[in-house]
Amino acid sequence: MNKNLRRILVSLTALGLSALAGSSSAEPDPRVHAGRAATYQHLANESLEDVSTPDAIMAVTESGIAPTRVWSVLEHGEKVECLSCIPHVGKLLYNSHPKTREIAAWWLRRRVFGVFGEGQVYSQVVGALADTDRPENERVFAANAIGEFLSAAGVKHVARSLTDDPSPLVREASAKALQRLNSQGPNGELAAAMLDSAEAVRLAAVRAALRVNVFTGVENVLGLIGDESPAVRRASAEALGTMRVVDAVGGLMAVASADVESDPAVRQRAIWALGQIGDPAAKEVVTAALEDSDPFVRDAATAALRRL
User: Fold this and answer.
1) CATH number corresponding to 223-308
2) Which residues, in sequence order, are CB contacts of 119 under 8 Å at separation 6+?
3) Tens-place pLDDT, residues 193-238
4) How many CB atoms neighbour CB 94 within 10 A?
5) How far from 295 is each of 126, 267, 278, 299, CA to CA, in Å?
6) Residue extents of the structural domains in the chain
7) Which of 23, 25, 267, 287 could form a disulfide with 44 if both were Cys (CB 3.0 to 4.6 A apart)?
8) Count of CA atoms in the C-beta half-sphere (13 A) of 56
9) Alpha-carbon span 292 to 207, nearest angstrom
10) What is the pTM of this model?
């Protein structure tokens, strides 16, 4: 190593150690709230994100503030302890902007005390979701918030609204919340939602099934290969291929044919899925797809044949 470079590195190391030594003996910053989370109590005060202040956090929860300003203040106030800010930020869970709602939940879920206790923000949101007399959009936002809080205790609440709420929009939001919570529901509510009368709910459910760690309702996904909605059929074919469901080969072979399936995107997904499953029984159907009128179907067939 160059001698000059070595001297520079040694000097920088010495400066770093000196700075650490200085920080460990520094007086506590009186601006830090006395109730700061124990998680942060051993960190040097200057290492905390205190660009925001309690006053700034409360100010951006008022109406008429630009969303980007709200996001910036909350992100820079990740470790700012301010119990009086909690009800103000809680109002943002019902904001019309989805990212504002997401960041508000992100900020709140780091504050167990003042958020998750009885009668506090979390239980208020649970109550809002369960109250079907509340406006539909408020229940949708409540389902979103429960998902973003990432608390396993919320699973039963969004699972119940997925099956019981009269609004398709709330049921759709509840399916997405179960996905965020990485759960199929305590009684397989995600699979049950694949029989929902609303296309958006079925679609959200099948997409969520692909993203939760444990999903046992594969037969319900298989049933969607004949759904009236092309979007749901596409999602079903993709899910079956990703899960490599051997029992789905017959149904996928059927919708891989233009004689049966008019939507080329569904045929393309079905061919792709057959390639993922890798059952040689599908080779003839996939070979025939090389003559499909749609170029994307033909491309999928070329790729799938390499796996059969």
Assistant:
1) 1.25.10.10
2) none
3) 999 999 999 999 999 999 999 999 999 999 999 999 999 999 999 9
4) 19
5) 49, 11, 22, 6
6) 223-308
7) 23
8) 16
9) 27
10) 0.81
